[in-house]
Design brief:
Elements lengths: L18 E13 L4 E2 L3 E2 L3 E19 L7 E6 L2 E2 L4 H11 L9 E9 L10 H19 L5 H15 L11 E4 L13 E3 L12 E5 L10 H6 L7 H21 L2 H20 L10 H17 L4 E4 L5 E5 L4 H12 L8 E5 L5
Parallel strand pairs: 5-7
Antiparallel strand pairs: 1-4, 2-3, 4-7, 4-8, 5-6, 8-9, 10-12, 10-13, 11-12
Helix pairs in contact: 2-3, 5-6
The protein binds ligand DP6.
Length: 356
């Protein structure tokens, strides 16, 4: 299905002698997207924190087209020509070409690099697809200067979603919602929106320390995992639970109710992995050290009453979340008790913040 509101009627195709460049941040979901319908429509709404220190920076330069292939581009990752992403970018161009007709008119030199080590086990598809989509929108804006900022960001998020679902949340604001939800005004399955409701100041600059438990390649990709939600015995209940967790989260965010926040966030993380454990074929992405870290977090929280909690993405790494006011205690705890469970003792100190 083509969403005609994102197809602009007039198009010039002159070469623009400019390099387009943008940074897009990583995000960590509080309420998880796991399961999708056709055309990257999420099976349930999700909400994420935007991170400030983990990001992808991408540049795109236009050249006259070199050959007759439909899409012509070179992709450089960390300054080296990279063929392994070629198929993914080609598929992405194919999917979005109806919305950006200039894609078949030029040769593109795309250069991308991450602020975090490539081998950290942190997925860069969200920040990478978001950064590329924003660059493509900058080009579109040069062809059609009359487009509004509102249209620019809506379409950037719309395009990013077509590259990777969670990428549509890697822009816009420090808290982003993607997927229709009755309690979130303006929410859409087609793009992310800045979280529109009031958020208590305790959540400002919330700390996210990413504990790198396992930096290896995952055995099951997110795409495969999403697919396994089709016909999953608990899918219906899971999708309903995500809706209800967003309503609960909205209240907790408004009131600064960290206790409820923790309960929702940890339950979401464990449910995500419970879906993996109960898929057919079933799979486990957590590692023994993931569980050891979770146990330590629970013990520390009980003993000290400091509200540290965790979330997980589709992998073994643990995101330790805590309020800015406990930054010092958080780091001391990590160094004393958690670093031993991290691969080569590595972790990344990040925090929640607006887009770069
Ligand atoms: C567990 O966005 O990576 O991180 O749309 O297939 O590219 P695709 O999937 P992706 O899935 C992210 C899953 C998650 C939860 C989340 O970020 O909401």
């Amino acid at each position: 299905m083509i969403h005609t509101e994102f197809v602009l009627p007039v198009y010039a195709t002159k070469i623009l002698d400019k390099t387009y460049q943008h940074k897009a941040p990583s995000n960590i979901a509080l309420v998880k997207y796991w399961g999708k319908k056709e055309n990257q429509i999420p099976a349930n709404p999700s909400v994420s924190f935007t991170l400030t220190k983990s990001y992808t920076e991408t540049s795109v330069k236009l050249f006259p087209k070199k050959n007759t292939t439909t899409y012509s581009f070179d992709f450089y990752f960390e300054n080296k020509l990279n063929e392994s992403f070629r198929a993914k970018i080609h598929a992405y161009f194919e999917r979005i070409a109806v919305y950006l007709p200039f894609l078949s008119e030029f040769h593109f030199e795309i250069r991308s690099e991450n602020s975090f080590p490539h081998s950290s086990g942190i997925a860069s598809s969200a920040s990478g697809m978001a950064a590329l989509s924003i660059c493509l929108m900058q080009i579109e804006r040069d062809f059609c200067p009359e487009i509004s900022d509102d249209f620019f960001w809506k379409k950037a998020s719309f395009l990013a979603r077509l590259g990777s679902g969670s990428a549509c949340r890697s822009m816009l604001s420090d808290l982003v919602v993607w997927g229709e939800h009755t309690d979130i005004q303006g929410s859409s399955n087609l793009y992310g929106i800045p979280y529109p409701d009031k958020v208590h100041s305790v959540f400002a600059q919330y700390q996210d320390t990413i504990l790198l438990i396992d930096k290896g390649q995952k055995q099951v990709s997110s795409s495969q995992g999403h697919n396994l939600m089709h016909g999953h015995p608990f899918a219906k209940e899971r999708f309903e639970q995500a809706h209800s967790n967003i309503s609960k989260l909205k209240k907790a965010l408004h009131q600064g109710d960290i206790e409820s926040f923790i309960q929702i966030i940890e339950s979401e993380a464990l449910t995500l992995h419970a879906m993996m454990l109960t898929s057919l074929p079933y799979f486990i992405l957590m590692k023994p050290n993931t569980l050891s870290v979770i146990e330590r977090i629970w013990r520390f929280r009980k003993e000290t009453k400091i509200p540290v909690c965790f979330t997980l993405d589709a992998g073994a790494n643990v995101h330790l979340l805590y309020p800015k006011q406990y930054e010092e205690e958080g780091i001391t705890f990590i160094k004393r008790e958690l670093v031993a469970f991290c691969e080569n003792g590595e972790y990344i100190c990040d925090e929640v913040g607006a887009t770069l």
